[in-house]
């Protein structure tokens, strides 16, 4: 029988729920539904969105500056309820982990950090609405969602007691993979942050062609404005406030980041495939290769097909899966190296 620590399956369930929250967040952002409810945590003063004609009239009287749009309100509220459910799951994880804290190697610090993070995420969710999609908050909210998902998956790996096959390759070669895996994960995190900044400033369509941008290899770009993180709080940022050259700078930087991540990931994957012997990472290497190909294809498709919704949402989802793959790789390399010492 598999010997899992307490809360293992609860944490796996929370991880799956976190995937849903990330995907729903992407869908909400890409359908311009981030301000589908002008208040927080309710929607036009209701626990759910207004539905009857009288409720809609009441809602629009209460918020005359924000006419009610059902097609934007429901994704926002579904996302909020899923995020709230995730917070409840993390509270349960902390309760049971604390209850079993005397059990050998039962983690308590990571769940506590996750609880603090999900509270901060709730605040970012509120500020996203109250600060009218201020790009800094939207980007940090996206990064917080990816971080929450990654740490839940890391906690799942730590709670899994199943033995991990040890590699038969020389330890020196195995240890040499660790810094490469760490660099790959750092590069991917920076690329996800660039993607969040691109999305929150509505720069995804700034370059409508590929591989050129506006039919130029080096288009006109305004990096100072594109990466100005001191934008004023106050305007409504729905649709973005930047001019074309600033958005082009963000888009081109995201493309360059994609190239850097892709080539470094390919280098890492080749090194993993060259690992002779009974390596437990062969399956994971296949998964990383597949995810990388899909993610690159989705990124190019976003440009060629002018950001179709399902492709853009999938691009966010597979970015999350690729990050989880690198979290797994780094964790397995760490555990295997410790066992070999």
Please provide a written account of the structure:
With 341 residues, the protein is mostly helical. It folds into 2 domains: 1-162, no CATH class; 166-341, no CATH class. The protein is 67% helix and 0% strand. The chain is built from 10 helices and no strands. The protein has helices spanning 8-30, 53-62, 70-99, 109-130, 135-159, 171-200, 223-226, 244-273, 282-304, 309-340. Helix 6 packs antiparallel against helix 8, helix 6 runs antiparallel to helix 10 and helix 9 packs antiparallel against helix 10 (309-340). The longest helix is centred in the last third of the chain and has 32 residues, at 309-340. The two termini are 28 Å apart. The model has no long low-confidence stretch (mean pLDDT 90).
Features:
2 domains; mainly alpha; 0% strand; flat
Query: Globular, elongated, flat, extended or rod-shaped: what is the shape?
Result: flat
Uncertain stretches of 5 or more adjacent residues:
none
Task: State the distance separating the first and last CA atoms.
Answer: 28 Å
Tell me the strand percentage band: under 5%
The total number of structural domains is 2
Number of strands: 0
Q: What is the overall number of helices?
A: 10
Structural class assignment: mainly alpha
**What profile does the largest beta sheet have?**
none
Percent helix, as a range, is 55-70%
Rg, Cα atoms, Å: 22 Å
Please, what is the average pLDDT?
A: 90
- The sequence of SSEs as H and E is HHHHHHHHHH
